[in-house]
Amino acid sequence: MSLLSVNDLWVSYGAIQALRGISLRVEPGEIVTLIGGNGAGKSTTLRTISGLLQPRSGEVQFQGQPIQGRAPHNIVTSGLIQVPEGRGIFANLTVDENLQLGAFTRTDRAAIRKDRERALDLFPRVRERLKQQAGTLSGGEQQMLAIARALLARPKLLMLDEPSLGLAPQIVQTIFQVIREINREGTTILLVEQNASMALQVAHRAYVIEVGEMIMDGPAAELAASDEVRKAYLGAH
Fold first, then answer.
1. What pLDDT digit, counting tens, does each position of 85-141 carry?
2. Contact, 87 vs 148, CB < 8 A?
3. Judging by DSSP bridges, how do beta strands 31-35 and 4-13 pair with one another?
4. Which end of the chain has the lower number of beta carbons within 10 A, N or C?
């Protein structure tokens, strides 16, 4: 059974059709990436999966159960956690307070402490800034905090929306190293990313979306080698 299964999803913003029959699946233990240009429907797909948008038709199943129509906070408690584009941190709270909010659905204090230490080991720069207001962090540090906070919710599936957006190349390398590490430790990941080259390097499988429709999918290495993908998304001529 797939951990996540999206079947024939149609989503519109008023009269504008944003997604047209989108289907995808994510198996336990995978990194799956969704690549495509600006406005292709990548973020809309994630927002629909996490319950922030309601589809016109189609089905989203998580762990074999339909979740479309459920409130976003109910979807979070089932273990499906999204780090949104723009990070979504609470700028006026401290870094430490942001981390605490990541575990707000949990009561297992000893396990929370252990997960917190692991998240801070992954992101030493977040550990150094626990008492700072989150809004004073650099963009890269805010992204690290957003992922660390999501890990404290102990996700069964972690959805990352444009984690490299606007970040310096060195920080991007760090973020992607951590994505690999989190996955090696057992967290399944659905990654939306404009940096197609980096995304295809870390992913097991990939989907290509254009104007709200899936146009290609397959093993990430095969898509990275495809002339069509290389010309459209990897800057090859």
1. 877 889 999 999 999 999 988 889 999 999 999 999 999 999 999 999 999 999 999
2. no
3. unpaired
4. C
Sign of the C-alpha dihedral, residues 45, 46, 48, 49?
positive
Contacts for 200 with CB less than 8 Å, ≥ 6 apart: 33, 35, 206, 220, 221, 223, 224, 229, 234
Residue 28, amino acid: P
User: What is the CATH number for 184?
Assistant: 3.40.50.300
Q: Are 3 and 28 in contact (CB under 8 A)?
A: yes
**Tokens (6 digits) for 93:** 């709270």
> Residue 100 corresponds to which amino acid?
Q
Backbone CA torsion sign across 106, 102, 195, 40: positive
> Structurally, how many domains does the chain consist of?
1
